[in-house]
Amino acid sequence: MSAMFNPEGTESLLDSLVSVSREFGANPAYVLAGGGNTSAKDGDAMFVKASGTRLGTIDAEGFVPLSLKALNLIWEKEYPAETNAREDAVLADMNASRIEEGDARRPSVESLLHGFFPYRYVVHTHPAIVNGLSCSKEGEAAMERLFPEAVWIPVIDPGYTLAKRVRDAALERKAKTGIFPRVVFLQNHGVFVAADTPAEIRDYYGKIIGALS
């Protein structure tokens, strides 16, 4: 990674991101095969898992630095209504937010979703025990009872559509409570946990798994 992406603190942030990513990625209770994605923010830069990279063995080169300023401009644009045309256009803009010139790594398709959390770290996994909740007919009601601070997102198309739905729901919750949610459950698709430190990420996951065990 070039010198311009190594301001004071970035190296340790990447080390922490690699560590927490491997910790969850190598644990089959959280991630099977190559699933899941992670990110960490440092000023205007967000380091997000590259598409096709395995969390359990990832290193610093497995993360793509994106400009949050460029990424957030996506929310101000109008995109085609047709699904494929819209997703292609959003993907092009997301790739254009890569900070390093000539970087051929593809950022995770869920980078947009990672970007709008106002917390430093985001860890998305698919624990079997969580999917037992998220795939249940009573999943939303159970989530509201067990995790009233969390947000539930019904089944929806991935990519921009999913990111926009989560963003809208999170902003609505913040408007009501004054707090941007840290935990988002996706129906049939795992959970996002956001926090400012890896220790907080572990704590939130511990509470989730504990409550469901």
Spatially, the strands of the biggest sheet line up as 3-2-1-4-7-6-5
- Tally of DSSP β-strands: 7
Q: What structural category do the secondary elements indicate?
A: alpha+beta
Molecular shape: globular
- Give the C-alpha Rg: 17 Å
Distance between the termini: 41 Å
Strand-residue proportion: 15-25%
* Residues in helices, as a percent range: 40-55%
Largest sheet: 7 strands, mixed
Global mean pLDDT: 92
Q: Any low-confidence stretches, pLDDT <50, length ≥5? A: 1-8
Number of helices: 8
* Strand and helix order: HEEEHHHEHHEHEEH
Sum this structure up briefly.
This protein is an alpha+beta fold.
Describe how the helices and strands are arranged.
Layout: H1 10-25, E1 37-42, E2 45-49, E3 63-67, H2 68-72, H3 83-96, H4 111-116, E4 121-125, H5 128-134, H6 139-146, E5 151-153, H7 160-177, E6 183-186, E7 191-195, H8 198-212
Parallel strand pairs: 5-6
Antiparallel strand pairs: 1-2, 1-4, 2-3, 4-7, 6-7
